[in-house]
Automatic annotation (TrEMBL):
Location (main, coarse): membrane
Keyword Secreted: no
Any Pfam family hit: ABC2_membrane
GO cellular component, one term: ATP-binding cassette (ABC) transporter complex
Ranges for domain ABC-2 type transporter transmembrane: 12-202
Transmembrane spans: 29-47, 53-73, 104-125, 137-160, 172-190, 222-241
Record's protein name: ABC-2 type transporter transmembrane domain-containing protein
Keyword terms: Membrane, Transmembrane, Transmembrane helix
Subcellular location(s) per record: Membrane
Membrane topology: Multi-pass membrane protein
UniProt-recorded Gene Ontology molecular function terms: ABC-type transporter activity
Length: 249
């Protein structure tokens, strides 16, 4: 009996369909990822005039991107590796890159979803309206920031093998990034820490998001922040791929 090996395109299509179905079945986790930035955006309604629309939107999207990369992507990869899903996929006639491309495509869709949700709620609830260029650049900046946090999540899951350890570590890193990032950026933790936060992954992502939504134009500070964001993403992704193991042994 002749065995037919599926084409790479067919295998990738099947993987994409399977991963999106899995994401849909875990929609409760998706809702939780969406809730935090939306709640913050709504609660800041009365302070938008002081904080600025770009500040509020960029902060909420940054928080959402952090949740996607750390608590969404990395935990899903660690859980599937622990269950032996990747080990079974490796023996299938599917290129390894196709397996990861499928997972990343789901996360890119999540980035689009959470960015759109923040823009819609910002418009409907807070009355924030950007220019068409502002929205377009906002999405592009969100994808750049998302790549950074997906790379960070990949690095953590590559460094740590145990799924529970990955889960606890990502929650801790998420908490530190959000709390230190938000308060440090406002100068509430001292000027020195404010400068550190500004050039941290949290700060560079927020800077490019904020700059992309403003009508005053793109500054040199935003350009440096974009280069730093890309640099972070490349380093995190390189280490994450280098350290990643397909099983827990």
């Amino acid at each position: 009996m002749k065995t037919t090996i599926p084409s790479t395109t067919s295998a990738l299509t099947t993987l994409l369909r399977s991963d999106f179905i899995t994401q849909w079945r875990n929609r409760r986790a998706v809702v939780l990822v969406l809730l935090v930035p939306i709640i913050i955006l709504v609660s800041w309604k009365s302070a938008i005039t002081k904080l600025g629309a770009a500040f509020a939107l960029s902060t909420c999207i940054t928080i959402g991107l952090t949740a996607i990369g750390l608590m969404g992507y990395s935990n899903a990869i660690a859980r599937d590796r622990d269950k032996g899903v990747f080990q079974r996929l490796r023996v299938a006639p599917i290129p390894r890159w196709a397996i990861m491309i499928s997972r990343l495509a789901v996360q890119l869709a999540m980035i689009m979803l959470i960015t759109t949700a923040v823009f819609v709620v910002g418009y409907k609830v807070d009355g924030i309206e950007l220019t068409p260029m502002g929205y377009t650049l906002g999405y592009l900046a969100a994808f750049a920031g998302g790549a950074l946090y997906l790379g960070l999540g990949q690095m953590i899951v590559g460094l740590l093998k145990n799924a529970e350890t990955v889960n606890s570590t990502t929650r801790l890193v998420y908490f530190v990034f959000i709390m230190v990032g938000m308060f440090g950026e406002m100068g509430m933790l001292g000027e020195k820490l404010k400068d550190i936060v500004h050039w941290s992954p949290y700060g560079t992502v927020k800077t490019i998001l904020s700059a992309s939504m403003q009508t005053v134009g793109w500054s040199s500070d935003a350009s440096i922040a974009l280069l730093a964001t890309i640099g972070y993403a490349v380093v995190f992704a390189y280490l994450g791929i280098k350290w990643f193991r397909w099983n827990t042994r």
